[in-house]
Amino acid sequence: MEPKVRRGIGLVAHDAMKKDLIEWVLWNSELLMGNKFYCTGTTGTLILEALKEKHPEVEWDFTILKSGPLGGDQQMGSRIVDGQIDYLFFFTDPMTLQPHDTDVKALTRLAGVENIVFCCNRSTADHIISSPLFMDPDYERTHPDYSSYTKRFENKSVVTEAVESVNKRKRKKR
């Protein structure tokens, strides 16, 4: 028997795109069964309701976060950084300016930093879910090595210089 793959999947949609994401999830529900879902508040609540209606016998694994503008986007970003999310399906509304646009940009950036699969529309989502890699239990994304970035201040005297600068300024005031 082939091993069942379990992915961490983030689901987010702007208001004008919620129906589209719900339809996409319902259309692909058989392929999505058995995965772990992280969703922003309203989107997750609506998707879970639709899935329970279509598949009342299935126990879906959903973590519903806060609404996107109320912190849910940041919660999603935290799950990305923690390695819990492999795919982020974020159906964005290209015709409406979002009050939390910086949060959306932050999620886009984190998806790139963490090298997770990210899409913002149904066509891309269709291509992703139809890829053989989506169900391939041997597929693992590469994890970028940022050690040179995180260690960029090693062997540098930034802290010592800051302390000396503050001490020097305090001596001048006396």
Summarize the structure.
The chain is α/β, with parallel strands linked by helices and 174 residues long. The chain contains eight helices and five strands, in the order E-H-H-E-H-E-H-E-H-E-H-H-H.
Topology, element by element:
Layout: E1 8-13, H1 18-27, H2 29-32, E2 36-39, H3 41-54, E3 61-64, H4 72-81, E4 87-91, H5 101-113, E5 117-119, H6 122-130, H7 147-150, H8 158-173
Parallel strand pairs: 1-2, 1-4, 2-3, 4-5
Helix pairs in contact: 1-3, 4-5
Number of helices: 8
Mean pLDDT: 93
CATH class: Alpha Beta
- How many domains? The number is 1
Q: Would you identify the CATH architecture?
A: 3-Layer(aba) Sandwich
| The CATH homology group name | Methylglyoxal synthase-like domain
Helix content class: 40-55%
Q: Any idea what the radius of gyration is?
A: 21 Å
The side-by-side strand order for the widest beta sheet comes to 3-2-1-4-5
Number of strands: 5
| % residues in beta strands | 5-15%
Q: What's the helix-strand series?
A: EHHEHEHEHEHHH
Largest sheet: 5 strands, parallel
Return the CATH topology: Rossmann fold
